[in-house]
Amino acid sequence: MSPLYAVVLGAIVLALLGVSLGRMHTVKTRADYLVAGRSLPAFVLVFTLLSSWIGSGSLLGGAENAYEHGFVALWQAAGGWLGLLLIYFIAPRARRFAQFTIPDLLEARYNQTARVLGVIAVLFAYTAITSYQIIGGGDILHLIFPAISATLGRYIITAFVIVFTAIAGMASVAYMDVVIGLLATFTLIVATFFVLHAVGGWHVVTHSLPASHFTVFGDSGWVWAMELALPTMLLMLGNQSMYQKFFSAKSERDARVAVVGWIIGTVILETIIVALAVFGSVMFPHGEVSHRPREIIAYVGLHGVPALLGSLLVGSVFAKIISTANNYLFSPATNLVNDVFVRYIAPNASNRTVLLVSRSMVALLGIWSLYQAMGTQSVLKETLYAYTVYAAALTPVILAAFYSKRATSAGAVSAIAAGTVVTVGWDSRWLHPYLPAGLAHLDAIFPALASAVLCLVVVSAVTPKPSAEQLAPFLQEAGAE
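The line above is the sequence of Transporter, SSS family; the predicted structure tokens follow.
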């Protein structure tokens, strides 16, 4: 293998470290660390939103799905696209609210119990998301440096992510994402067209793969397509990492403009990733990668394109994974600091103490994510699990906070609890054997979401309406109807 791959990877790591260290001097207060001092312009927001969304879930899980089933994998991406269209209208409301975390919002609109349960749901979902970023990074290190096992690679990636995230918080994450987003966008597009040409063009692709790879619902039917799309859409609508970026925006206008750029970038990149994996399945239908299809994009970068393009492709995939891990590790760390430590343990803590605890939480959650990564076999399955925990437990109550006068504290608490418990228990050993055969094969998103929405609606209907004081910040700031 060309040493160029190692050189490019090393250069990317040093560049990311340089960006983090360069932003470190700007971090002096809790707001600086958690929401970048609410100073991010639209250009930076576009790339940090794009980088936080497209990581191993797309580059490994989505690519694995595309390699095995074809363009039906776009249903996972399409759920995000629909969510983004709705977010265009939510973004300015979120910026007006201008808090630090989603549990901040839950307590302001509901109560402290909703805040605590929200923290728990975020921890389950986001450390799971971080765990499969660690898996992806470990796989890439093993591919580039065979002497490094995939397991050792996970330890190395965890160390990278902890250091990069802890240094400067949101400012570090956001400005690294600009560098990563520009690099990844360019190399993925060029590599996709190169591979399409190398395999002989579209005609060869369509004649080399099963016809189901090019149909709307593929070889698994519409229910499976909805199991891909629905969790993705709901995660997008309630994504705490996204709301934290909106809380970090310089203005409401910057938040709304950033969503437009995010929509365009996501549609292009998600489609390119799926297409590259499909074309890669024609180029490498057998052999090593057919047994580990989640690695198809990195494998194409190593064996299917010229060394310069390949090194940039592998490097950009690696950087995207690091970036997404940074975002999803940083987000629950802010929950533990802002929603537990500052809220209940040390409300008068100095900025220096808060920053020290924040960095400690990043390290502890990074280690927990690594522990989860060691027990994960399928990135796609772990992706859907993580999305479902968050989508079912939090998205309904977050949307109700902005748009409903009738949702009550009791309704929100019951919805968060039901969504979390049903998701976590659905595939567990203690519950799954007792499910009816007709239900056992379904993804948890359907029962979990139904349980959460039912609890929110029914419990809210039989409990007293929220007070005018409780609704006032949302009616005045967000214009809820």
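Note on the example: The chain has one domain: 4-379. Residues 311 and 420 are 41 Å apart (CA to CA).
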